[in-house]
Amino acid sequence: MDVRVQEAAFDPGGELNAFTARQDGAGAVVSFTGIVRDVEGGLRHMEIEHYPAMTQSAIEAVCTDALGRWALQDVLVIHRHGQLAPNDTIMMVATSSAHRAGAFAAADFLMDYLKSRAPFWKKEVTAEGSQWVDAKDEDEDALKRWSSS
To answer: For position 149, what pLDDT does the model report?
Structure first.
């Protein structure tokens, strides 16, 4: 398991290649890369804040949960903080397992958790000012499906 919360940019292709190279015996690697998007238009940048020890341990705990729910071989989570512009890479999840179903399900689970529960605070900054990003009902609904799994 590799969990990194960092300010620095990273190369998703390079990270995926390195992760895949370590997966001896795996039959599947699934990855997702998140990119800062400008949904409404006019986003100058996004500011992501967190408490380092709290965030690191929370993400590690959910990765441990995923490792226990599915027969995973490995998990990678990279999440950035600080100031990010539209089109910047914000995060990445990669999972590996013997079969694709577990790798896909675990990656989906981790994404739902990171979107709804990971202790990050996001502020969008536009020409008109700034505002904190509220949780979305659809993200909460997506996370609920894992409570019975």
So the answer is: 52
